[in-house]
């Protein structure tokens, strides 16, 4: 199994190739690259090691890296997080839950401090989601392929 720097280098190479192909075809690759960076640096299949081994992704989270400990406690390494659909779904739901809780806590503190928080969501934010997800899945699946998992194995879905 490749180590963290090898996974990162392979993902960055694949993302660079996808960027060159996409821009040559006239596509805006910004949101795709954001998803790829997310899957390369922050939300990787190896976050299931949190609390056991300090992974690169956990280090990249800085002080917030500890928020991934419960995940590492409840799932075994190379278990559900190393599947092609269930793994990224679990990690994205976990991440969304963490983000929601953190935003709610910040909002509660701000409201109780008398600070007004006006959030404007860009009108095209939801239209960018498929592209972000595509970049994320490219990085995620490349990690799994490098670990030796095949899409042909139905147990890996």
From TrEMBL:
Keyword annotations of the record: Membrane, Plasmid, Transmembrane, Transmembrane helix
Transmembrane segments: 90-109, 129-146
Pfam families noted in UniProt: DUF2227
InterPro entries: DUF2227_metal-bd (IPR019250)
Highest taxon of source: Bacteria
Signal peptide feature range: none
Name of the protein: Membrane-bound metal-dependent hydrolase
Species assigned in the record: Deinococcus proteolyticus (strain ATCC 35074 / DSM 20540 / JCM 6276 / NBRC 101906 / NCIMB 13154 / VKM Ac-1939 / CCM 2703 / MRP)
